[in-house]
Amino acid sequence: MKVLVSLCVFVPLLVLATAEEEEVLESILRDRSHIEETLRLAADEQAGDYAASLQRLRKIYHNSIRPMEQAYKYNELRQHEISAYPGRTLGDSATDGEITSKPMVLFLGPWSVGKSSMINYLLGLQDTPYQLYTGAEPTTSEFTVIMHGDKIRTVEGIVMAADSSRSFSPLEKFGQNFLEKLIGIEMPHKLLERVTFVDTPGIIENRKQQERGYPFNDVCQWFIDRADLIFVVFDPTKLDVGLELEMLFRQLKGRESQIRIILNKADSLATQDLMRVYGALFWSLAPLINVTEPPRVYVSSFWPYDYAPDTSCELFKREEISLLEDLNQVIENRLENKIAFIRQHGIRVRIHALLVDRYVQTFKDKMSFFSDPELVFKEIVDDPDKFYIFKSILAKTNVSKFDLPNRAAYRDFFGINPISSFKQLSAQCSYMGGCLLEKIEKAITHELPGLLSSINSGKNPTLSSCEATGCGEKPKNRYRRN
């Protein structure tokens, strides 16, 4: 009886203590209303117009660009220089999943700097059963893709790679060991209707690449090529640059417009110490980012709890809102970016087809009855400048010399694709389908720019856009440093 009485007294006390803890926890949580306001999550989108434009874009790609890709095996030209706006590649021939995919935001950086906590904060997952696991030790060992779904569920990597409706099927080439380290999380969230987050394993400098069991840098490159925005996160205690981080910044070369540096956990330092750390961060990264204007650096503390007292709280909040505006800009421009992405890809495919056509023509001109085909073509591939392969393209077409692929790439390309397997462009015509070159040129010069113009002209000022630009007042410069 005494035991029962003790339990009856103890249980209400436990419930009371838990309630008090929740009350204290709520009092120290940060207000999240500015996230919904800045990202305009309450605003209704014109889903019908967006879907119709996307359908038209898909039709242009499949009718005018993809046939040229397949005819000249563009997907076999393996090099990162063949990239599309904004620093992305279609990889193997594009799928509807690539074209219709949402903007991708990639989180990179050393271990335990707050990448997962930042995603939890943006999505409001803190203290829910679905929050990403965080801790002071290295906690994220998988590539985690957080995307929209009708219900909350976990998707295994092998399922994501096997589903052709998604844009992750090319990841199969990295092997089964990697697919075991790939995981997807679907949830019905307003922000995830417009964007997809990718959380990556933290960089650990004392770990050898072989210990991961898969090509970590190659996987990172795949996501970097497809990311619309790349957050490289640091904290005040992890500013040193080792071999793995140095390699990562080499892979980010040419993607500077997409990179945002985040100095997280800034409220853990006094203002004077924070200034020193900010300078030390620039000093560490300066040799790795060799551009005229460095990437934007955001200084704040991206997690759900209130800022530490006696720190620059107003500055941190303004930095956070500035970052959210940056993210919102990517979301609002996603359709325009997608069209520009497909158009730039079409230009690369056209250049590739023109070059292959020139190789084929040169080979036919050099061949005679007594010639050895292998020796003739080897001479052409080894020294294309001798036969004016690339210069002839610049002379006869409106191609920029800066868009030309690496000459060495074609030595490898023709190593696996015999020259005899390609027809000249003049032979790639049919009565019903027309000529491949004319169709892709029409798409590049008329159809895709026309689609882009129709979208821009169809935008009517709304309350949210008036708040952003002032509607009649001098527009704000969204890229000005505050």
Question: Which characteristics define this entry?
Answer:
9% strand, disordered C terminus, alpha/beta, 482 residues, two-stranded antiparallel ribbon, eight-stranded mixed sheet
What do these coordinates show?
By secondary structure, the protein is an alpha/beta fold. 47% of the residues lie in helices and 9% in strands. It has 17 helices and 10 strands. It has helices spanning 2-28, 33-39, 47-71, 96-100, 115-123, 157-162, 176-179, 216-226, 243-251, 271-285, 313-332, 334-366, 373-382, 389-396, 407-416, 436-457, 463-469, and strands at residues 104-108, 143-148, 153-156, 182-187, 196-199, 229-234, 259-263, 296-299, 429-430, 434-435. The strands form 2 sheets. An 8-stranded mixed sheet has the order 3-4-2-5-1-6-7-8, with helices on both faces. The chain has a two-stranded antiparallel ribbon with strand order 9-10. Strand 9 (429-430) and strand 10 form a beta hairpin. Helix 3 packs parallel to helix 12 (334-366). Residues 1-26, 79-94 and 460-482 have low confidence and may be disordered.
